Amino acid sequence: MTGIASRGQLRMSFLRTALLIAPAVLLLGSLSGWLSNSSSGNDWYQALVKPGFTPPGGAFAAAWTVFYVLMGIALAMIVYARGSRGRGAAIGLFAVQFALNLAWSPTFFGAHRVGPAFWLILFILVAACVTTWMFFRIRPRAGWLMMPYLLWLGFAAALNYEIWRLNPDAERLVPGTNSAEFAL
Predict the structure, then answer these.
(1) Each residue's pLDDT tens digit, 86-132
(2) How far apart are the first and last CA of the chain?
(3) Rg of the Cα atoms in the chain
(4) How many CB atoms lie within 10 A of CB 59?
(5) Closest residue by Cα to residue 107 from 167, 37, 60
(6) Cβ neighbours, 10 Å, residue 30
(7) Could you tell me if 98 and 71 are in contact, meaning their C-beta atoms sit under 8 angstroms apart?
(8) pTM as predicted
(9) Are 70 and 131 spatial neighbours (Cβ–Cβ below 8 Å)?
(10) 162 CB contacts (<8 Å, ≥6 apart)?
(11) Rounded to whole angstroms, how far apart are CA atoms 84 and 143?
(12) Which domains does the chain carry?
């Protein structure tokens, strides 16, 4: 044996790191959505006019579960890349874009601020692009794991924009007040 640890020991060490980080990212992301009532049962969201390319409600939860797990594994790869140039900055940028990500659901679903949520998602997209670029420089596989998230962010930004365009008074929308279901 020429190294300090065998390949198997290194793999197990990475696995422990990933088994800590990936569920933590998933938990925090899920908690942000749950606390801001971002489920398909949100009456305010259901009352919004949505573009034709809006996915069904269940698709969001499934997609975000996959994205958060992939992001967590990518982050674990970077955390595990001790001694790599730019590692600290990459981890810091991940934290920034992830904090912005966690703020999006409370902005959109919680505060009903569709316009500010659109600008926020653009900031998230820029920060996530820079993070992904740094991940690619350190561990290319970690960068590839971030790509589905980037694609989804682009799609989500377009969806957010269209919802904003179609619902200029979304902040003041009170579900049920102008519908045939309203009863005295």
Answers:
(1) 999 999 999 999 999 999 999 999 999 999 999 999 999 999 999 99
(2) 80
(3) 19
(4) 11
(5) 37
(6) 15
(7) yes
(8) 0.84
(9) no
(10) 50, 51, 53
(11) 15
(12) 8-171 (1.20.1260.100)
